[in-house]
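Task card 7
Instruction: Convert sequence to structure tokens.
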Amino acid sequence: MVQKAKILLVDDRPENLLALEAILSALDQTLVRASSGEEALKALLTDDFAVILLDVQMPGMDGFETAAHIKRRERTRDIPIIFLTAINHGPHHTFRGYAAGAVDYISKPFDPWVLRAKVSVFVELYMKNCQLREQAALLRLQLEGGGKSAVGETKEPAGLLAELSARLAAVEEQAEALSKQLDDDAADAAAVATAAHLERKLTGLRRALDALEPGTGSGAPSVPSQS
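Output:
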């Protein structure tokens, strides 16, 4: 069963949170509310999120300060942040949002379809990264366990490699389709860069698998890092 991605919605106004939930419910993912920057940071201590929708104007810790805290943490610094604001102070205000680490900056009222489409891209990238981490973990277990399956059965090397290769191929195919979609849609540069990073990690994992093929050398190759 594919686990749903979590999307963090941060806004001090309940009606705005309700509106965001109505817009994003069609994505069929897990929507998590936070009514302040402090509450958002607390949620990020325990859960992993695909993307954060962060209101700029909040009492106490505003969106910029919240984003700064998020980007300083090792665990959360790579989570995409989309800023939402009801006011527009011009280019300087927008630049401040990007400088704080946002991948996008959207003024209210926003087009629901556009917002949903932007969020869906980051959700899909997150899911592909999760699949990649799972395949890398499986490869490590197989290499360290001498080819044993999860139930303790020892598999022939050829059969093991074929299984791992097939699993990786499925992720590669989905990543390639996503990259093509991003190119066709002229998506945000941040989304395209994230997709390219995912493809590089897939390439590293494929090389590690290819190195295990008979006749390509001896010894277990190192599995690429998933950071």
